[in-house]
Amino acid sequence: xxxxxxxxxxxxxxxxxxxxxxxxxxxxxxxxxxxxxxxxxxxxxxxxxxxxxxxxxxxxxxxxxxxxxxxxxxxxxxxxxxxxxxxxxxxxxxxxxxxxxxxxxxxxxxxxxxxxxxxxxxxxxxxxxxxxxxxxxxxxxxxxxxxxxxxxxxxxxxxxxxxxxxxxxxxxxxxxxxxxxxxxxxxxxxxxxxxxxxxxxxxxxxxxxxxxxxxxxxxxxxxxxxxxxxxxxxxxxxxxxxxxxxxxxxxxxxxxxxxxxxxxxxxxxxxxxxxxxxxxxxxxxxxxxxxxxxxxxxxxxxxxxxxxxxxxxxxxxxxxxxxxxxxxxxxxxxxxxxxxxxxxxxxxxxxxxxxxxxxxxxxxxxxxxxxxxxxxxxxxxxxxxxxxxxxxxxxxxxxxxxxxxxxxxx
Length: 410
Hints:
The chain is α/β, with parallel strands linked by helices and 410 residues long. It is built from 6 helices and 27 strands. The strands form 7 sheets. Strands 1, 2, 3, 4, 5, 6 and 17 form a 7-stranded mixed sheet that branches. A 5-stranded parallel sheet has the order 8-15-9-10-11. A 5-stranded mixed sheet has the order 20-18-27-23-24, with no helix packed on it.
């Protein structure tokens, strides 16, 4: 039995940032990471574009991870690698399994969940047609290419326009493959605008919005697929079906927070984000358990992950030391064009709180309105709001006079 002030589950960008913040707040801290090294998904993201906001310089994923890894090592924070967290007890005891230590238990004053997310697979979206070789999630194709050195195909189609899929369309092209097209079910991209420009437009890769796959063809390996436009009901119009040859299909059709560890624990979950419902300190409804990063809600920038993890880590340390006081909470609700807002609860008090939000469609010239009771806290016009890019606004806690509503005026 080990005892720590804070146990962080996950050693990716969120876990490392949370552990550093907890340690710097005076907490004895442990990181449990199931991989053989710290860094998480960043270890395979060899492209540029990380750190522009957090470090004010551009770096690759491995460079970004290494910056945090060195900070963890410099502080002497305890790290247990190849350690799979199995359960969390009611007394905040984390049970984990590792080759080096066997079955271990770590008693924590506070726990930070930073397990990241996983990709939706062909089975998860009920992809129609045969089940041949050559169908990969975009992240798996990225690992095979960037870490293992394999080219997964020479004629590639990408389903979905998430950021990983867009980046892999470019990566496949630079490795010599021909990316035939990208298909997106929605009439807009689910990825960042900059990735549409830098990964598709700059390489002449076509994207077809409001299209989806209707059939996979091939045995034992994919030989091609049929695709068709979809109507307003998102159902394919089969009479307009077309065929394209390909020997690989990459799926970029959404991410699911890895919250299996807290299933059945009583933690209140958000049906929209599939993560925990939290307050501004990122504490869940289970006292002493905090959540941050992609296990809480899927981010578009790792810089935001690190910033959020810092909030969770320092708050977890304060809770473990008995210094975190939770005042009366108000609820935060998303309505009228706003898909979700986070945090879902805010403690009354002093200071500012940052609300993150995503919209449910592309809006131009819309106003974001934040209301508390009968009072309007914020009324701001945005040139463009899109589902692929998370927005944020700051409000003063002292202005809060009731439950908060975040909505759009179109």
